[in-house]
Amino acid sequence: MRRPLNVVILGASGSIGTQALDVIDRHPDRFRVFGLVTGKRALDREARYTATAVDPDCEARTEEMVTHPECDLVLVAIPGARALPPTLAALRAHKKVALATKEVLVMAGDLVMELARHSQDAIRPVDSEHSAIWQCLWGEHLDSVSRLVLTATGGPFWSRPALDLASVTLEQALEHPRWSMGPKVTIDSATMMNKALETIEAHHLFGLPLERIAVLIHPQAIVHSLVEFVDGSAKAQLGNPDMRLPIAVALSYPDRLPDAVPPTAFEAVGPLEFHRLDEERFPAVRLAREAALRRGGYPAVLNAANEAAVDSFQAGEIGFGEIVGLVESALAAFPGGGSSMQDILEADRWARDYVRSRVGIYKR
Fold it and tell me: Domain containing 201: what range?
C-alpha cells in the first residue's frame, strides 16, 4: 500500500486552497497536508510546516517547505507575481507542482518550463481551462493538434453590450455569473485579462504557437475548453463549474478520485452557446498575444501593470475602464529588456512603478 502524498499548499486560506483542503480531507488515504502558507491569518488546523504572509521569515520558511525531501507535491495558489520564487524552488527540487497561479507562466514561462523538463507531469494545471485541455490531450500526440480553444463565460459584462464599461463599479465587477473566486481573479474575468493571461499560459504549457490558441465566449461554463485536431474532430471536457474537479485531477494524476464532485445532470443543462470574443471591447487578449510575441520582459510588464491597475481600481483610485488602458500604456512605454530572472523582476518592478506614476493622470 502506497503512503499518502505529502502536499504543501501555498495560498491555503484562499478560494483554491480551501477547496483543495476539502478534497484532501475527503481522501486521507491518498493525501496528507505537509505544509500550509496562508495570508495574514493562520488556519485552525495542523500541518508539519506553517507560515503566514506577515511572518518576517515567510519566504525562507516557504522555500524550506517546498524543497523539503519529504514534500511530494506543491499546490501553488498564491495570487500574483509572488508565487514565482517558490514555484521555481519547488521545480528545482524536482517536486510536482499543481499550478493555479496564472502569473507564474506569464512572467517566466521559458524559465519555468525549462525547470519542468525533469518529468512530463512536473506541472499539473489547476486552472479549469488548462486542466480541461490537459485532460483532452491525455493519450494524444501534439502533432495531431490543430488548435486549442479556451472558453470564457464573458464575466459580468459580455452579455451587456450597451453598458458603458467606464461607469462600472467595484461591486459590479465582483459579481461573477458562474464562478466563486478571489477579488483579483474576478476582476480579471470582468476585463477578460484572465483569458489574456491564460492564452500565454497555454502557449507555454502545451507548446503551441499563439496563433493556434483561441478564445470563445461560452456563458454556460459547462465546456471548460476544447482541443481541435487536424482531422477536424474535437475533444472537450465538460462539467458543472466546480474548482474541486481540476484540483482533484492535479492532485491524483494519473488516477481519478471517486466522487471528487457531483456528476453533471446533462439533461438539465439546456442549450450550450459559443460566441466570438469582441477584442475591440475587450482588448486584453490581443495585448497578451503582442506581449508574448515580443518576449523578454513584455509579458511580465503585462502582468505587473495589470496587478497594479487592479489594486488601484479596488482602492477607488481609477475607474474600471482604465485598467486595461493602463496595461496598454505600460506596454507601449516599456523600454525593453532581457529574459533572465533578474530582467523579468526588473520589468515587473518597472511596470508597477509606471502604473503608480500614471494613476489619476492616464485616461483611456
Answer: 127-241+271-280
